[in-house]
Design goal:
With about 80 residues, the protein is mainly alpha-helical. About 50% of the residues lie in helices and about 0% in strands. The protein is built from 3 helices and no strands. It has helices at about 5, 30-60, 65-75. The chain starts with a helix and ends in a 10-residue tail after the last helix.
């Protein structure tokens, strides 16, 4: 039906060849480091935005605090000397 009807099967890579085509120009160490720094900066920005949004949602009451956040903002809740 599917592959049989098409005719010849797709060519398979030889035993010693990689499955993907090699790059024409390998990247240099400087290119890799600049890419990695840019990627890390984007991730840090994304995490900071998510943390800021979560803090705003908690302040507005849209989201409940988890235990760690509750301990940071209201440590008196965990004080056993009150009881």
């Amino acid at each position: 039906m599917g592959a049989e009807a098409e005719g010849a099967p797709p060519p398979q890579p030889a035993a010693g060849e990689p499955a993907t085509a090699p790059r024409a120009q390998p990247i240099s160490a400087a290119q890799f480091l600049s890419w990695k720094q840019r990627k890390d900066a984007e991730e840090a920005t994304r995490k900071a935005e998510a943390a800021q949004k979560r803090a705003a949602d908690i302040a507005s009451g849209a989201v409940q605090m988890n235990g760690r956040e509750l301990f940071q903002h209201e440590p008196w809740v965990f004080d056993n000397n009150i009881y």
